Amino acid sequence: MKYDVYGIGNALVDMEFEVNDDFFTKNSIEKGTMTLVEEERQAELISALESHKTSEIKRQCGGSAANTIIAVSQFGGKSFYSFKIANDDTGSFYLNDISENGVDTKNTLENLPQGKTGKCMVMVTPDAERTMNTFLGITATLDKDQIDEKALENSKWLYVEGYLVASPTGHTAALEAVRLAKQAGVKTSLTMSDPNMVKFFKENMQEIIGDGLDLIFCNEHEVRDFTGKTSLNEAREELKKYAKTFVITLGKNGAMIWDGTMFIDIEPHAVQAIDSNGAGDMYAGAFLYGITNGMSYAGAGSLASLASSKLVEQFGPRLSWREAKDILKQHHNNE
User: Fold this and answer.
1) For 35-54, how does the pLDDT look when each residue is reduced to its tens digit (9 = 90+)?
2) Closest CA to 310 of 284, 335, 273
3) CATH at 76
4) pTM for the structure as a whole
5) Distances (CA, A) of 172 to 24, 125, 148, 201
Protein backbone atom coordinates (compact mmCIF):
# COMPACT_ATOMS: atom_id res chain seq x y z
CA MET A 1 0.00 0.00 0.00
CA LYS A 2 1.33 3.42 -0.93
CA TYR A 3 -0.79 5.45 1.54
CA ASP A 4 -1.87 4.89 5.12
CA VAL A 5 -4.78 7.32 4.87
CA TYR A 6 -6.60 8.90 1.94
CA GLY A 7 -8.69 11.90 2.98
CA ILE A 8 -11.42 13.84 1.23
CA GLY A 9 -12.76 17.13 2.51
CA ASN A 10 -12.83 20.89 2.35
CA ALA A 11 -9.82 23.05 1.61
CA LEU A 12 -9.86 26.28 3.57
CA VAL A 13 -7.12 28.69 4.51
CA ASP A 14 -7.50 29.14 8.26
CA MET A 15 -7.17 32.63 9.70
CA GLU A 16 -7.08 32.55 13.48
CA PHE A 17 -7.95 35.42 15.86
CA GLU A 18 -8.19 35.88 19.61
CA VAL A 19 -11.50 37.46 20.69
CA ASN A 20 -13.70 37.99 23.75
CA ASP A 21 -17.33 36.93 24.12
CA ASP A 22 -18.52 40.53 23.70
CA PHE A 23 -17.28 40.42 20.09
CA PHE A 24 -19.80 37.63 19.41
CA THR A 25 -22.61 39.59 21.04
CA LYS A 26 -21.83 42.77 19.11
CA ASN A 27 -21.58 40.93 15.79
CA SER A 28 -24.40 38.37 16.25
CA ILE A 29 -22.11 35.33 16.07
CA GLU A 30 -23.16 31.97 17.52
CA LYS A 31 -20.36 30.86 19.80
CA GLY A 32 -18.82 27.39 19.65
CA THR A 33 -20.09 26.30 16.23
CA MET A 34 -19.13 26.49 12.57
CA THR A 35 -21.34 28.90 10.61
CA LEU A 36 -21.26 29.22 6.83
CA VAL A 37 -21.09 32.85 5.67
CA GLU A 38 -20.81 34.78 2.43
CA GLU A 39 -17.51 36.41 1.48
CA GLU A 40 -18.94 39.89 2.20
CA ARG A 41 -19.92 38.87 5.74
CA GLN A 42 -16.46 37.45 6.36
CA ALA A 43 -14.83 40.66 5.13
CA GLU A 44 -17.15 42.65 7.40
CA LEU A 45 -16.10 40.54 10.41
CA ILE A 46 -12.40 40.87 9.59
CA SER A 47 -12.88 44.64 9.42
CA ALA A 48 -14.68 44.55 12.79
CA LEU A 49 -11.79 42.55 14.25
CA GLU A 50 -9.31 45.15 13.04
CA SER A 51 -11.28 47.94 14.72
CA HIS A 52 -11.52 45.64 17.78
CA LYS A 53 -7.70 45.86 17.89
CA THR A 54 -7.45 42.12 17.27
CA SER A 55 -4.69 40.87 15.00
CA GLU A 56 -4.47 37.60 13.14
CA ILE A 57 -2.44 34.98 15.01
CA LYS A 58 -1.75 32.52 12.25
CA ARG A 59 -2.60 31.60 8.65
CA GLN A 60 -2.25 28.07 7.28
CA CYS A 61 -3.91 25.54 5.03
CA GLY A 62 -6.79 23.85 6.76
CA GLY A 63 -10.16 22.29 6.60
CA SER A 64 -11.00 19.65 9.18
CA ALA A 65 -9.85 16.60 7.22
CA ALA A 66 -6.75 18.43 5.96
CA ASN A 67 -5.63 18.93 9.57
CA THR A 68 -6.13 15.22 10.22
CA ILE A 69 -4.30 14.12 7.09
CA ILE A 70 -1.38 16.46 7.87
CA ALA A 71 -1.19 14.97 11.39
CA VAL A 72 -0.88 11.47 9.88
CA SER A 73 2.02 12.76 7.77
CA GLN A 74 3.74 14.51 10.69
CA PHE A 75 3.77 11.36 12.81
CA GLY A 76 5.46 9.54 9.96
CA GLY A 77 2.57 8.10 7.95
CA LYS A 78 1.90 8.49 4.23
CA SER A 79 -1.19 10.43 3.28
CA PHE A 80 -3.15 11.73 0.28
CA TYR A 81 -5.79 14.44 0.24
CA SER A 82 -8.58 15.20 -2.25
CA PHE A 83 -9.78 18.81 -2.18
CA LYS A 84 -10.69 21.76 -4.40
CA ILE A 85 -8.99 25.16 -4.50
CA ALA A 86 -8.93 27.99 -7.06
CA ASN A 87 -6.10 29.58 -9.05
CA ASP A 88 -5.89 32.63 -6.78
CA ASP A 89 -3.19 33.68 -4.30
CA THR A 90 -5.00 31.89 -1.47
CA GLY A 91 -5.10 28.69 -3.53
CA SER A 92 -1.38 28.90 -4.30
CA PHE A 93 -0.65 29.42 -0.60
CA TYR A 94 -2.81 26.40 0.25
CA LEU A 95 -1.15 24.09 -2.26
CA ASN A 96 2.36 25.07 -1.18
CA ASP A 97 1.52 24.67 2.50
CA ILE A 98 -0.06 21.23 2.19
CA SER A 99 2.81 20.00 -0.01
CA GLU A 100 5.35 21.24 2.54
CA ASN A 101 3.49 19.16 5.11
CA GLY A 102 4.20 15.97 3.18
CA VAL A 103 0.72 15.33 1.80
CA ASP A 104 0.23 14.12 -1.77
CA THR A 105 -2.59 15.45 -3.98
CA LYS A 106 -3.65 15.41 -7.62
CA ASN A 107 -3.82 19.25 -7.65
CA THR A 108 -1.07 21.26 -9.33
CA LEU A 109 -0.73 25.01 -9.86
CA GLU A 110 -1.28 24.43 -13.58
CA ASN A 111 -4.64 22.63 -13.25
CA LEU A 112 -6.42 24.88 -10.74
CA PRO A 113 -9.81 26.25 -11.89
CA GLN A 114 -11.00 29.87 -11.84
CA GLY A 115 -12.74 30.95 -8.66
CA LYS A 116 -12.07 31.86 -5.04
CA THR A 117 -10.40 29.58 -2.53
CA GLY A 118 -12.31 29.13 0.72
CA LYS A 119 -11.32 30.81 3.97
CA CYS A 120 -12.20 30.02 7.56
CA MET A 121 -12.15 32.59 10.34
CA VAL A 122 -11.34 30.81 13.57
CA MET A 123 -12.13 32.92 16.63
CA VAL A 124 -10.72 31.72 19.93
CA THR A 125 -12.00 32.96 23.30
CA PRO A 126 -10.16 32.91 26.66
CA ASP A 127 -12.06 29.72 27.65
CA ALA A 128 -10.28 27.98 24.69
CA GLU A 129 -13.57 27.55 22.78
CA ARG A 130 -13.28 27.87 19.03
CA THR A 131 -15.93 29.51 16.86
CA MET A 132 -15.72 29.40 13.07
CA ASN A 133 -17.25 31.52 10.34
CA THR A 134 -16.51 29.92 7.00
CA PHE A 135 -16.69 31.18 3.43
CA LEU A 136 -16.50 27.95 1.43
CA GLY A 137 -15.69 29.50 -1.92
CA ILE A 138 -14.80 26.92 -4.56
CA THR A 139 -14.59 24.05 -2.05
CA ALA A 140 -18.42 24.13 -1.97
CA THR A 141 -18.27 22.62 -5.48
CA LEU A 142 -15.88 19.78 -4.59
CA ASP A 143 -17.15 16.80 -6.59
CA LYS A 144 -16.26 13.31 -7.80
CA ASP A 145 -13.66 14.73 -10.21
CA GLN A 146 -11.38 15.46 -7.25
CA ILE A 147 -11.17 11.76 -6.37
CA ASP A 148 -7.96 10.02 -7.44
CA GLU A 149 -9.13 6.41 -7.80
CA LYS A 150 -5.65 4.95 -8.07
CA ALA A 151 -4.42 6.69 -4.91
CA LEU A 152 -7.58 5.61 -3.06
CA GLU A 153 -7.18 1.99 -4.14
CA ASN A 154 -3.58 2.12 -2.90
CA SER A 155 -4.58 3.28 0.59
CA LYS A 156 -5.24 1.38 3.82
CA TRP A 157 -7.98 3.74 5.01
CA LEU A 158 -10.37 6.33 3.59
CA TYR A 159 -11.19 9.28 5.87
CA VAL A 160 -14.28 11.35 5.01
CA GLU A 161 -14.92 14.82 6.44
CA GLY A 162 -18.46 15.17 7.79
CA TYR A 163 -18.71 18.80 6.64
CA LEU A 164 -19.17 17.48 3.09
CA VAL A 165 -22.79 16.58 3.93
CA ALA A 166 -23.65 20.30 3.65
CA SER A 167 -22.75 20.48 -0.05
CA PRO A 168 -24.76 18.57 -2.71
CA THR A 169 -21.64 17.88 -4.81
CA GLY A 170 -19.50 17.22 -1.73
CA HIS A 171 -22.07 14.76 -0.43
CA THR A 172 -22.06 12.95 -3.78
CA ALA A 173 -18.24 12.89 -3.79
CA ALA A 174 -18.20 11.40 -0.28
CA LEU A 175 -20.68 8.70 -1.35
CA GLU A 176 -18.54 7.85 -4.36
CA ALA A 177 -15.34 7.75 -2.29
CA VAL A 178 -16.94 5.32 0.18
CA ARG A 179 -18.26 3.18 -2.70
CA LEU A 180 -14.85 3.02 -4.38
CA ALA A 181 -13.10 2.28 -1.09
CA LYS A 182 -15.42 -0.60 -0.25
CA GLN A 183 -15.08 -1.94 -3.79
CA ALA A 184 -11.27 -1.92 -3.43
CA GLY A 185 -11.25 -3.39 0.08
CA VAL A 186 -10.07 -0.11 1.62
CA LYS A 187 -11.29 0.47 5.19
CA THR A 188 -13.71 3.37 5.61
CA SER A 189 -13.88 6.07 8.27
CA LEU A 190 -15.88 9.26 8.81
CA THR A 191 -15.74 12.16 11.22
CA MET A 192 -19.09 13.76 12.08
CA SER A 193 -17.21 17.10 12.24
CA ASP A 194 -19.71 19.36 13.98
CA PRO A 195 -23.03 19.14 15.89
CA ASN A 196 -24.67 21.35 13.24
CA MET A 197 -23.81 18.84 10.50
CA VAL A 198 -25.64 16.13 12.44
CA LYS A 199 -28.49 18.44 13.36
CA PHE A 200 -29.24 19.80 9.88
CA PHE A 201 -27.89 17.11 7.51
CA LYS A 202 -28.50 13.88 9.43
CA GLU A 203 -30.05 12.08 6.45
CA ASN A 204 -27.05 12.89 4.26
CA MET A 205 -24.72 11.57 6.94
CA GLN A 206 -26.76 8.40 7.27
CA GLU A 207 -26.56 7.95 3.51
CA ILE A 208 -22.75 8.17 3.56
CA ILE A 209 -22.62 5.65 6.42
CA GLY A 210 -24.93 3.39 4.41
CA ASP A 211 -24.79 -0.22 5.56
CA GLY A 212 -21.99 0.65 7.95
CA LEU A 213 -18.43 1.99 8.08
CA ASP A 214 -15.32 0.56 9.67
CA LEU A 215 -14.75 3.54 11.97
CA ILE A 216 -16.60 6.69 13.05
CA PHE A 217 -15.16 9.65 14.98
CA CYS A 218 -17.55 11.90 16.91
CA ASN A 219 -17.90 13.82 20.16
CA GLU A 220 -20.54 13.29 22.81
CA HIS A 221 -22.88 16.00 21.42
CA GLU A 222 -22.73 14.56 17.91
CA VAL A 223 -23.33 10.96 18.98
CA ARG A 224 -26.35 11.97 21.05
CA ASP A 225 -27.83 14.04 18.22
CA PHE A 226 -27.13 11.35 15.64
CA THR A 227 -28.60 8.45 17.63
CA GLY A 228 -31.38 10.46 19.28
CA LYS A 229 -30.34 9.09 22.68
CA THR A 230 -29.83 11.42 25.63
CA SER A 231 -27.83 8.90 27.65
CA LEU A 232 -24.24 8.46 26.46
CA ASN A 233 -24.36 4.75 27.27
CA GLU A 234 -27.49 4.30 25.15
CA ALA A 235 -26.01 6.42 22.36
CA ARG A 236 -22.82 4.36 22.18
CA GLU A 237 -24.81 1.13 22.01
CA GLU A 238 -26.91 2.58 19.16
CA LEU A 239 -23.77 3.66 17.28
CA LYS A 240 -22.71 0.01 17.00
CA LYS A 241 -25.40 -0.31 14.31
CA TYR A 242 -23.52 2.17 12.11
CA ALA A 243 -19.85 1.31 12.56
CA LYS A 244 -17.69 -1.72 13.38
CA THR A 245 -15.55 0.51 15.59
CA PHE A 246 -15.79 4.09 16.82
CA VAL A 247 -14.18 6.82 18.91
CA ILE A 248 -16.22 9.23 21.03
CA THR A 249 -14.12 12.14 22.26
CA LEU A 250 -15.15 13.62 25.61
CA GLY A 251 -13.09 16.81 25.83
CA LYS A 252 -11.40 17.16 29.20
CA ASN A 253 -12.78 13.73 30.18
CA GLY A 254 -10.73 11.85 27.59
CA ALA A 255 -12.39 9.49 25.14
CA MET A 256 -14.16 6.17 24.83
CA ILE A 257 -13.34 3.71 22.08
CA TRP A 258 -15.28 0.70 20.80
CA ASP A 259 -12.72 -1.61 19.17
CA GLY A 260 -15.31 -4.08 17.91
CA THR A 261 -15.23 -6.31 20.98
CA MET A 262 -14.91 -4.06 24.03
CA PHE A 263 -15.07 -0.46 25.23
CA ILE A 264 -11.78 1.20 26.10
CA ASP A 265 -11.67 4.32 28.28
CA ILE A 266 -8.84 6.67 27.34
CA GLU A 267 -7.70 8.83 30.22
CA PRO A 268 -7.32 12.57 29.62
CA HIS A 269 -4.16 14.57 30.23
CA ALA A 270 -4.36 17.49 32.63
CA VAL A 271 -3.63 20.61 30.57
CA GLN A 272 -4.12 24.36 30.60
CA ALA A 273 -6.12 24.67 27.37
CA ILE A 274 -5.93 27.94 25.45
CA ASP A 275 -7.33 26.87 22.06
CA SER A 276 -9.47 23.83 21.23
CA ASN A 277 -9.32 24.50 17.47
CA GLY A 278 -8.29 21.31 15.67
CA ALA A 279 -8.26 19.09 18.77
CA GLY A 280 -10.70 16.59 17.25
CA ASP A 281 -8.85 16.66 13.93
CA MET A 282 -5.55 15.97 15.71
CA TYR A 283 -7.12 13.15 17.69
CA ALA A 284 -8.32 11.48 14.48
CA GLY A 285 -4.96 11.98 12.75
CA ALA A 286 -2.92 10.51 15.58
CA PHE A 287 -5.38 7.65 15.98
CA LEU A 288 -5.35 6.80 12.26
CA TYR A 289 -1.56 6.96 12.23
CA GLY A 290 -1.51 4.56 15.18
CA ILE A 291 -3.83 1.90 13.77
CA THR A 292 -2.12 1.99 10.36
CA ASN A 293 1.32 1.62 11.93
CA GLY A 294 0.99 -1.37 14.22
CA MET A 295 -0.74 0.06 17.28
CA SER A 296 -3.79 -1.43 19.00
CA TYR A 297 -6.91 0.72 19.36
CA ALA A 298 -5.92 1.33 23.00
CA GLY A 299 -2.39 2.35 22.00
CA ALA A 300 -3.64 4.59 19.20
CA GLY A 301 -6.14 6.15 21.61
CA SER A 302 -3.37 6.93 24.10
CA LEU A 303 -1.23 8.55 21.39
CA ALA A 304 -4.24 10.56 20.16
CA SER A 305 -5.05 11.73 23.68
CA LEU A 306 -1.46 12.86 24.26
CA ALA A 307 -1.27 14.64 20.88
CA SER A 308 -4.57 16.51 21.26
CA SER A 309 -3.68 17.53 24.84
CA LYS A 310 -0.44 19.11 23.57
CA LEU A 311 -2.31 20.83 20.74
CA VAL A 312 -4.84 22.65 22.95
CA GLU A 313 -2.00 24.22 24.95
CA GLN A 314 -1.12 26.42 21.96
CA PHE A 315 -2.82 28.39 19.21
CA GLY A 316 -3.60 26.78 15.88
CA PRO A 317 -4.95 23.42 14.67
CA ARG A 318 -1.56 21.77 14.09
CA LEU A 319 1.63 20.75 15.83
CA SER A 320 5.08 21.38 14.42
CA TRP A 321 6.98 18.44 12.92
CA ARG A 322 9.35 18.45 15.88
CA GLU A 323 6.45 18.40 18.37
CA ALA A 324 4.85 15.46 16.57
CA LYS A 325 8.09 13.47 16.70
CA ASP A 326 8.56 14.33 20.41
CA ILE A 327 5.01 13.20 21.21
CA LEU A 328 5.55 9.91 19.39
CA LYS A 329 8.77 9.37 21.33
CA GLN A 330 7.05 10.20 24.63
CA HIS A 331 4.21 7.81 23.79
CA HIS A 332 6.64 4.94 23.08
CA ASN A 333 8.51 5.68 26.33
CA ASN A 334 5.23 5.52 28.28
CA GLU A 335 4.24 2.14 26.88
Assistant:
1) 989 999 999 998 888 877 66
2) 273
3) 3.40.1190.20
4) 0.92
5) 34, 35, 15, 13
